[in-house]
Write a structure and sequence with these properties.
The chain is mainly alpha-helical. The chain has helices at about 25-45, 55-60, 80-90, 100-110, 120-130, 140-155, 155-165, 175-185, 195-205, 215-235; strands at about 65-70, 170, 175. It has a single domain (about 55-240), classed as Orthogonal Bundle (Penicillin binding protein transpeptidase fold). It has a 3-stranded mixed beta sheet with strand order 1-3-2, covered by helices on one side.
Amino acid sequence: MVIEAVSAERPRKRSKRRVKPSLTRRILLFLGCLAALLLLSIVAFRFINPPFTPVMVVEKLRGYTLRREWVPLQDISPNLPLAVIASEDGRFCLHWGVDWGAVRDAIKEGDGLADFRGASTIPMQVAKNLYLWNSRSYLRKLIEMPLAYIMSFIWPKQRMMEVYLNVAQWGPGIFGAEAASRYYFHKSAADLTRREALLLAVSLPNPRVRNPARPTRRLLAIAGAVNARMPIIAHRASCLAPAR
């Protein structure tokens, strides 16, 4: 009689192995979350004033006392936005974030990144001030451009100008038109004259060096050139006119 041996061993359970996400997937997930947070903040800043910027944080860490007072666009002299457009972004009301004509001219005529600011539109400057860093690099420019397009799509031109004039740096620890007006000219931004607005506008490319209250001959010459463009810019600035 053949006795069949029955194995008493229990069937082995298959171990469930957790598949860990690859490094590439983790990086993509992180970038996706970062992009979502950026988009949400851009939508929020359409209605809420940004509480601070990376540049402000750096200035604070350097030991400077921050001077800043947010004011709505209608409480700023109209001389200043016109002067800023004439100095920084002559086609502000016509483009959607990037002025490709200015970009081509800067690449063709400029000396690398040294003269690339001439192609930086006001939306690109706002993107840099809110989310990026001050040092020049092609990487920063590549990030600025899509951010400028997104912000221009979500924000109206008046909001773009208001944010820019309130977060722009006008000296060590000095941010915004109101703080700059009071520091340099001892008056509110609402009372700026055309000359004072021009001097503030042409100081923006190098605010740590250029002093609007004590302009050099070179700064006065730049302000004169910008002043000559002001009548033309006034006809192009209809996007800043209050809605009726």
